[in-house]
Structures are given as structure tokens and as C-alpha cells.
Amino acid sequence: MALQWLSLVATIWLQSINGTNSNFPAYSSHLKKILSISQLQLNNLASASDAGKLLGWISGVAARHLSLRLVLLIGSILGLVGYGVQYLFLAGHINSLSYWHVFLLTVLAGNSICWINTVCYILVIKNFPLDQQIAVGLSTSYVGLSAKIYTALVDSVNILYLVSHICDMDEIK
């Protein structure tokens, strides 16, 4: 029984850190400025994530034929590429991406959520056969925390960067 609850906690954490549905507003204004795009184009980027979710059925088909570990790995790679390249672009490590590159990365990132959620739902359903609805409800109810988790993480990294930069300046003096 402890493993059942541990799997539920693990899926809650996985969905919380992967629940990137609500993260776009956190960086969209910066994206709009860097790409010099209109509000309509920005709205289309926000819709691109949803368009990626329209292809979520592929993860369900894959879960029927592949191991859950492989489905999770595919979702992780899609998310790493989709969100990772966008992050590198926003952080200035990649100098030029076109609007359409960012659009496709957003579709890819949106689709990655489906792969990881598919694994989470299958695990919860298998581990809680008598209380499937409650367990799935609990696992998805924490998705709203993901934006706060990412914001806190970015703030922490920025603070560490500033502190290390200040320490470097003190050493120079």
C-alpha cells in the first residue's frame, strides 16, 4: 500500500513540474519583445501549445505498444527540446530563432505534456483500481502549482547568479 501512495506522490510531483500549461504567461512578454511580434502572433504561440496537445492521442497509442519508461523518456525528450531550446533562446544563448521555429518548439513542448501525463494516468489507474477517479483527480489537481514552482526555481537561480557575481566583484577589488 505504501508503494501505491508513493506512486501517487511521484505522479503529483511529475505533473507539477511538467504541468507547463500555465507557464507561458511567465515568459510570453519577454518572448514578444525578443521576437518583435504582435499580440496576435503571441496569441498564436499560446495556441501552438494547445495544438501540440491535439496530437496527444499519439502518446496513448504509444503507451499501448511501448513500455511506460520509453513513453516517459519520449515525453521528457520532447519537453527538453521544446522548452529547452526556447529557454536557451530567451536567455540569449541562441541568437536567432524565427517566429516559426518558436511556434514549432511550442507545439513540440505542448505535446510533451501529453506523453508524461499519459504515463502518470496509467500508473495511477493501475495502482488504485478501486479509487481511480479520486487518485487521478488528486494527481491532476496540483498542476496549477507548476508555474509557481518554475518561477521560484528561476528566482533562485537568478539570486545565486547575482550572489556569485557580487562575490566575484569583491574578489576583484
UniProtKB/TrEMBL annotation:
Localisation per UniProt entry: Membrane
Tagged with keyword Secreted: no
GO CC annotations on file: membrane
Signal peptide interval: 1-22
Cell inner membrane among keywords: no
Main location: membrane
Keywords, in A-Z order: Membrane, Signal, Transmembrane, Transmembrane helix
Domain Nodulin-like: 4-158
Membrane topology of the entry: Multi-pass membrane protein
InterPro entries in the cross-refs: MFS_trans_sf, Nodulin-like
Pfam family, one: Nodulin-like
Matching SUPFAM superfamilies: MFS general substrate transporter
Domain of life, per lineage: Eukaryota
Transmembrane segments: 70-90, 102-125
Family statement: Belongs to the major facilitator superfamily. Phosphate:H(+) symporter (TC 2.A.1.9) family.
Name the UniProt record assigns to this protein: Nodulin-like domain-containing protein
